[in-house]
Design brief:
Helix content: 55-70%
Number of helices: 10
Radius of gyration: 19 Å
Strand content: under 5%
Distance between the termini: 44 Å
Largest sheet: none
């Protein structure tokens, strides 16, 4: 977002204190923390109260339960952003709500930077799986989620291969693309610009709170801070939301598609 004050609503539109609070150019630290973490709390609640019992009853993979919980919470967040856009611009739009949309990074440089960020994400997250295992074994073996574990493939254990392949393939448009895209709109496009007054601490705080938001895998917190930090940093530094979208969505799409193909070919 730029530093020019924006009206929180169109002239003649009835004031809404909730919308005005969210559309303010700056968020207080307590508000920002809440807006980062509450979606994670809701995702875990939906999973434990609805999705996990449903997956057990239908004998379906726990992975599908998490995909459902994420969808139930994140899709309304996208709707909230569009509603805020309508209050500000008169139409359902992300313009005027999200920051870093002016595309200042040239296309060629953008592609190169996103490619580098994806390589960083994949390589570093893979190297840090040993750390995840240590943290899980030390602190989180009690966690009540089905198929929880430090390995990224724990959810495959004990599941019929055909069912898992069908589940993963059907989930790709959501867990591989749409859901991480909504996360980028919310966390980097909407929330990060409103703490940009913190200077270089803004992307640090964004990364830490985004990592804490993943309450369904708290043992990955330290690793996620490390492998995810370049995305928020470059968005803040270059003022271009496409950088973290490219890194996050590109990586999840690559890994979810690659994992499904590997399972289909018997490589997993």
């Amino acid at each position: 977002m730029d530093n020019t004050p924006h009206p929180t609503a169109l002239p003649g539109v009835r004031p809404n204190r909730f919308a005005e609070l969210l559309l303010a150019d700056r968020h207080s630290l307590p508000l920002s923390i809440a807006l980062h973490l509450v979606p994670g709390v809701l995702i875990v609640a939906v999973y434990l109260l609805l999705a996990q019992p449903l997956m057990r009853a239908l004998d379906l993979p726990s992975f599908l339960g998490w995909a459902i919980a994420l969808t139930v919470v994140l899709f309304p967040l996208q709707g909230l952003l569009l509603w805020l856009g309508r209050r500000r611009t008169g139409r359902y739009s992300l313009r005027g709500v999200l920051g870093y949309l002016d595309k200042p990074v040239p296309r060629g440089r953008l592609v190169a930077m996103v490619a580098g960020l994806i390589v960083w994400f994949v390589v570093v997250s893979s190297l840090l799986t040993a750390l995840d295992a240590v943290v899980y074994d030390a602190f989180f073996t009690w966690i009540p989620f089905d198929d929880a574990g430090a390995s990224a493939t724990t959810y495959l254990d004990g599941t019929d291969r055909t069912v898992m392949i069908a589940t993963l393939a059907a989930s790709i448009p959501f867990t591989g693309f749409t859901l991480p895209l909504i996360e980028e709109y919310w966390f980097r496009g909407f929330l990060l610009p409103r703490i940009a007054h913190l200077g270089a601490w803004a992307p640090v705080l964004s990364t830490v709170l985004f990592s804490l938001y993943h309450l369904w895998s708290p043992w990955v917190f330290l690793s996620r801070v490390i492998f995810f930090f370049p995305g928020p940093w470059f968005v803040w530094k270059k003022q271009d939301l496409r950088l973290s979208i490219g890194m996050h969505v590109g990586t999840t799409l690559l890994m979810s598609t690659g994992g499904t193909v590997a399972l289909l070919l018997g490589a997993m």
